[in-house]
What does this fold into?
Amino acid sequence: MSDNVEWNGLPAARRELEQLLRDVRLTDRVRLKREWRKFYERDGITPAADLRPAAVELLLGKARQAAARSLRPAAAALRLEFPEELPITARCEELTEAIRRHPVVIVAGATGSGKTTQLPKMALAAGLGCSGRIGCTQPRRLAASSLARRVAAETGAEYGQSVGSKVRFDDRTVDGTVIKFMTDGILLAETRDDPDLLQYDCLILDEVHERSLNIDFLLGYLKRLLGRRRNLKLIISSATLEAGRFAEFFDQAPFFEVEGRVFPIEDYYLEPLRDEELSEHIARGVEFL
It folds into this structure.
């Protein structure tokens, strides 16, 4: 068969490629689709003049390799359990459906509501984390690493594998990491090499009420990115925020408010001893309790 005639196996190859593309990561999907388009004229029907069966088989081989490193098996292996004692669990189904249906979801929850640890799992329940990672930002490095350990324990994963963290000078992620905690500075730095942030299919910006320069820049950047990437989900989370302004900025995105947990407080008063230092006050108070 001449290299300049249509290859009869092309329709079957196209069907296989389309099937493989359902499981590959977004980064691989974009690259493979770009290579496939080289085989067709602009009308999308007529094969290109330089079409060769060997070239198509080579592309299919790349697609099979890409499917082998899909995040789907790792995401499916994570345990999804939502502690009943956390207030956000009562709205789990409602939030999961909102994440599935809307490009942007805004969540305000008081400290102790469970939003930071449970929202990544709700994103998983909504079907995310398969074609790209679920990225969760934190303002501070210690919070990013400690929260990653907590979520890894809750999902039955080994820290640094399916659930990991990345902060400055310390990267605890691997190629198969599904849930990635990081500082907002790390995410901002990644926009230089990956302007479309294709390694993620969901991003969670947490603690946005702190309104640092990094967070403000990311909010504007992601607003524009959502116009280009229809397959990206964004969750904005904070203890306190101006819901109306955020919802308006993100085209009337749905807003959810979650109550925090309240614990009883009892006051005890101890008479200070003569010439007792403050540090001794504390030690004696702890001993009393």
